[in-house]
Design a protein that fits this description.
Rossmann fold, two-stranded parallel sheet, 16% strand
Amino acid sequence: MDHNSPRSGTVLARAGGLTALKRLGNKIVVITGVSAGIGRASALLFAEEGATVIGADIDEIQGAEVEADIREAGGMGYFVKADVSKQKDVANLFVKAKELGGVDVLFNNAGVEVVKSLPDTTEEEWDRSVSVNLKSVFLCIKHALPQMEEKGKGVIISNSSAAGLVGSFSPSYSAAKGGIISLTKALAVDLGPSNIRVNCICPGAIETPMLERVIEMQGNPKKVRERRIKNYPIGRFGTAEEVAYTALFLASDDSSFITGAVLPVDGGFTSR
């Protein structure tokens, strides 16, 4: 074993039986879209793993509830109301990160889905999809980088989608999520010499409030659900917690030699 590698201390600690080891101990983590679904599950898990979590969302009520849940469990959590498609809000979010010591891990999770064909999509809907799903990733990374560069290292994770890898019924969503994949690869090359790792996750259908809304919008939810599940070799949709554990792996030193990765978490959906 190379004892100078980022993981060597972790591996040795586990070998020594230190069961209380936290994979994100002393890390400052920013998670967007934190009020529900994958964002909420990730915030709770990351806090359990020792991170100080700064959650951002436009939903102030549910965001505050996530902060309270983290603190009640003995963790460190803060909520900042922010529309991450807006420069001013993102700048304010990272002022909070700076106050706490500077961001170590950024998880770009915020997203919206426009369930319309391209001819039916309005200009406003297209702009909203691209702004929330893709522009927010650009803004958050732009504001996170100075803090990571000052520390000499960092981790950036973005939630793309299986819809960014294959065609979907939502062209505006696919376009934005595909953009995240290309941005991830470009930044992995650009930021590797700065010891900043950049990866993205491509979830399939995940049991979240967003998925429920999408299914409801298509009429006859039971049949829509049954039809879509048939596309998943594993025979079910995923859970927010399963994606959260994937994000935890990418955020931790367990993935210290992984950058530029596009990781499907989709029950085999994109393998067909």
